Amino acid sequence: MKFVLRTVAFSALVAVSGLAFAQKGETVRIAYMDPLSGPFANVGQNQLKSWQFVAEQLSGAKNEAGVKFEVVGFDNKGSPQESLNTLRAAIDQGFRYITQGNGSGAGLALLEAVSKHNERNPGKEIIYLNYSAVDPAMTNERCDYWHFRLDADTSMKMEALSSFVKDQPKVKSVYLINQNYSHGQQVAKYFKESLARKRQDVKIAGEDLHPFGQVKDFAPYVAKIKQSGADAIVTGNWGADLTLLVKAMNDAGLKIPMYTYYSQVSGTPTALAAGGESEVYVVAYGHANHTGEIGKLMTDFKKKFNDDYYGLATYNGIKLMSAAMAKAKSTNPVAVAKAMEGLSVKSFAGEVTMRASDHQLQQALFITKWQKAKKGEYSVENTGYTFVPVRQFEPYVSSTPTSCNMKRPG
Length: 410
What we know:
This protein is α/β, with parallel strands linked by helices. The protein is built from 13 helices and 15 strands. The two termini are about 40 Å apart.
């Protein structure tokens, strides 16, 4: 009898031990969906390499779940409709995790499609990891249980950026120039709302919303900015739409401070350097001069690709996924989604937490300034310039409330 009891107890112990490592050695495939062709291809290609590089660096024994991550690229051409096509292709190929970030229009289309798929296909659920689509609606009125945002949304970044601008007494008159889609519209909206609370003396000299990814020459817009007499620019532009704006400013000799969201993104640093010294600020959850593990990843990425690793949300994404899989003792999206809610992990800028109420990552934000790189500082796009942090905001400062009323499965 004692032998039987011991045998049962040993078997149970083995079963529990096996369960604890049930996911170890599995391969977790992530479908990456962003523009790999067209005007924003340079950004999409960089971000795909970033996901693949971090997945490789943090696979197996290098993550607490012991899983291998594999990232496969799908070209959504930056289009909501193409994003739905790539989602269908990924589902047909058996992917259970997807990631996207370049464009909130595509992001919202994916969010809705993933939600519908999961409702109609129990047992085949998919998780959508959003690494840079920043429309606040995605974690507010259109929030969804299967969507997790790794970036700070537009309102969070503006809360930090406007807090910084508030303390710049020389800023008296601002020109707003943004892409005419949800993100660009919201940058303008939230800046004006923030001014009303923080700096009522600052005037809006002018405002433009231009076609997304279609403007080839920003000279007419720059002429309007010069004519307005603005002493600063605020823009949420990214990719070619920011690079071409900077080039037009260089050509016109317009030298006024720019407060931006994405000056660190592919192509823009090279355009900034071509214009010589300029006063440019970025609000972001990271910067080019982190040390430690993330600093080494940046250095190794540069050596391998001769490109900059600036999409640090990829690092947080892999860290959160592996922590959730270890906690869930499973790679099944149903178990992982539940485990990721409220989960905190140590990141490159302190602790980050996936807020359970809306699946919006809570994290520190930085204001960085463009300047010549000193010895030991990272040379962005090999320009001899860098982005140096001038202010850090802890998560509670930039955190914004949510109106999300999340419907949970079951």
